[in-house]
Design a protein that fits this description.
The complex is a heterodimer of chains A (about 260) and B (about 220). With about 260 residues, chain A is α/β, with parallel strands linked by helices. Chain A contains ten helices and eleven strands. In chain A, the strands form two sheets. Chain A has a six-stranded mixed sheet, sandwiched between helices. Chain A has a five-stranded antiparallel sheet with strand order 2-1-4-5-6, with helices on one face. Chain B has a single domain (about 5-60, about 90-220), classed as MetI-like (MetI-like fold, Orthogonal Bundle), CATH 1.10.3720. Classes of the chains: A alpha/beta (about 260), B mainly alpha (about 220).
Chain lengths: ~260, ~220
Amino acid sequence: MSALSVTLRKKLPGFDLDVGWAVRDGFTVLFGYSGAGKSLTLSMIAGTLRPDEGRVVLGGESLCDTRAGVWVPAQKRRIGYVSQGSQLFPHMTVVGNVEYALKSTPRKERRPRATELLERLRVVELADKRPHELSGGQKQRCALARALALEPQALLLDEPLSALDLPIRVEMRELLRAVQRDTGVPFVMVTHDLVEACTLADTLVVYSGTGAVQVGSPAELVGNPATPEIRKLLHAMEVPEAVFDQARAPRLVTSRREEHVA
Amino acid sequence: MDMSTIAFPLRLSLQVAGVSTVFVALIGVPLAYVLATKKFPGKQVADVAVMLPMVLPPIVTGYYLLLIIGKNGLFGHFMQAVTGTAVGLTFTWQAAAIASFAISLPLGVTTARAAISAVDPAHGDASRTLGRSEIETALFVVIPLAARGIIAGLALSFARAVGEFGATIMVAGNIPGRTNTMALEVYNAVIYGDWRTATMLVVVFTVVSAVVLLGATKLSAAVVQ
């Protein structure tokens, strides 16, 4: 059974999104051109945007099914979301941000729990700082701590590393993989960076920009792109062989639409 | 001329404007939040209804208020049905506060709405994905982030309420010792040719308004963004 499956249609001014894919647990990366609808897909998985039609099923639970009239609001989904801008609340301290996500934790236990999370992400010394005092990498670590405070069923990452300098980016990649392994929940990350995509992904979902979506391990997809657009995307940049060696074993699933993934 | 001439109107004006501003905060800010962040049927009508007093002559707004809170208005009929006596709110300081509220509400709502609209919607979305309800998102994230604009809106509402004249004279009259606010007192002084009192009132008026604006600027600056 797939951990996360989506079939989504959304009409926006000048853009129609129509995608479907399913992935198992692990680290999934959505890769493709800008404007292909990857971030929109994340918003619809998170529940901050409604599709015109479609389904989102996470861990067997239907979060959205337009035909059956199912809509679980974002508040009830327990899906963590970290974006490029981190979206830490600027009027709260770092620890305040993390505590904000601990709504269901008794009040007295919030501070120790938040501190523990910040320690885990190695940013506990920043607890009393405000977001504007942090570097890009520090912000992302704090945003990750906040998202983990939710004990999420899945974590969505919308280009979380794209604003960071390369050394920090490499460090953050390692951190993200380690956190995914520790938590065991599915991570879905959007990126434009092919090396990043191939380094992190157990499963790569390529948005071709023409509606076609291909799903598989990075090695599978680079070796066997389904359409000329996907070939162009995946061969736009030379990816060192070592990147594929680094990636874990291929996990699943190749499909263009969810209904083809029984 | 002595200070007692202006003591009562000054106190009354501050009281009326204070009460009016509290209600602008309690009603106007949630209204601004809904108008800034939600789509709902009839939104344009609600928008126009809130903004109308800004473009209508205050005397017209005052007339509408008379129809609502007067002895022979909706409120009077309601009191007649409930208590057996038709009682209106007119010719009281409360009526002056209602008039100031109606006139200053659009100013507070417009400013607060602009400030709330300027908050990055991603912060609201982040709050929701962290399991927080719509009300918690509004109270703990969006409104604090829009606090500067909201405070500015409330200061403008207060300043507008202190100087309210047209609607106030319609619903509260101009009763010395009861409903003669500063603005009405300036009018009285001019009508009776008491230029010294008029000048003094106008100076006090100007100082109060300047202090309100200065206080609001300082308060806005103190809000951590």
